[in-house]
Amino acid sequence: MRRDSIFYQLFRQSPALLFELLEQPPENAGEYRFDSVAVKEPKFEIDGVFLPPETEVPGVVYFCEVQFQRDERLYERLFAELFLYFYRNRDRYANWRAVIVYPDRRTEQGETLPYEVLLNSAQVQRVYLVELGDLAELPLGVALMVLTTVDEGEAPDAARALLVRAGRAALSEAASRAIMEMVTTIMVYKFTHLSRQEIERMLGITLQETRVYQEAKEEGRQEALVQMIGRLFNHRFQQELPEEVRSRLTTLSVPVLEDLGEALLDFGSLADLLTWLEALG
Are residues 19 and 54 in the same domain? Predict the structure, then answer.
């Protein structure tokens, strides 16, 4: 399973989760916005970026890398991406921080000599989830992240225990619901071989009632529509859909994409598609 996708979904739902991993989180941690950014020349796509509020200028930008598979060029890529992004946005940010999340130390890049100064500085923090402690003793947000490392045999009990904790905690209805959705997200990804009904029975909830299940269905339809529009565009105009246009399509809702699929049949060029997208605002 793609655990990095799980984390980025968790961070998207609750950006403040990242700062629960840090010894010295920023005072305005709750105001940060999670995003992914593209840096051109060369083209980099940075999945985990935590942007300070627009009112804080210059602010501190946080980069997060979730790495569950060993990559012997991780630090080369990470520091190249973040330094280029920081360079191109220097006027907006006063400083940067980087957080690398590993399941354990064995997953970390072996050759770190060129980056020892950075890795041992206050600007970079490495987090090893298995070393954070007993799941039952961790804050709920951190426990959710550690749940991704739990073996499948133990995961159902651990997930149910977290749901019970969330139910007993003095949380708002919205916060309790968010915890349930996050646990559900993790289990859906962890047990891809199980049916929806089996996941429901495992957690003791009705998965169909959770927003994450509805969003998963919506995301699946959205992805299929984007791919279909790309194929239609290629067939009609004998060229690939530009990457920046494809990225724009991934931000559109399913109904809008369905409308575009029909409108595309009447377009005479890429310019017509760009005009249509621009009219959306």
Answer: yes
The sign of the dihedral angle between the CA atoms of 259, 264, 267, 271 is: positive
Least confident of 57-66, 70-79, 171-180: 171-180
pLDDT the model gives residue 235: 75
Residues 195 and 96 in one domain: no
Q: How many domains does the chain have?
A: 3
Can you give the pLDDT at residue 1? 43
C-alpha to C-alpha distance for 177 and 232, rounded to whole angstroms: 40
- Structural element, H or E, at residue 59: strand 59-66
Same domain, 189 and 223: no
Question: In this structure, which long-range contacts are made by residues 117-126, counting pairs with CB atoms below 8 Å and at least 24 apart in sequence?
Answer: 118/79, 119/75, 123/95, 123/96, 123/97, 123/98, 124/97, 124/98, 124/99, 124/100, 125/21, 125/22, 125/23, 125/97, 125/98, 125/99, 125/100, 126/99, 126/100, 126/102
pLDDT tens, position by position, 86-119: 999 999 999 999 999 999 999 999 999 999 999 9
Interatomic CA distance for residues 128 and 101, integer angstroms = 6
Co-location of 87 and 125 in the same domain: yes
Asked whether the whole model's pTM tops 0.70, one would answer: no
CA 229 – CA 224 distance, rounded (Å): 9
* pLDDT reported for residue 6: 76
Angstrom CA distances, 229 to 29, 114, 219, 265, stand at 39, 45, 15, 10
Tokens 């130390």 correspond to 105
Residue 187 lies in domain: 153-207
Residue with tokens 């700062």: 19
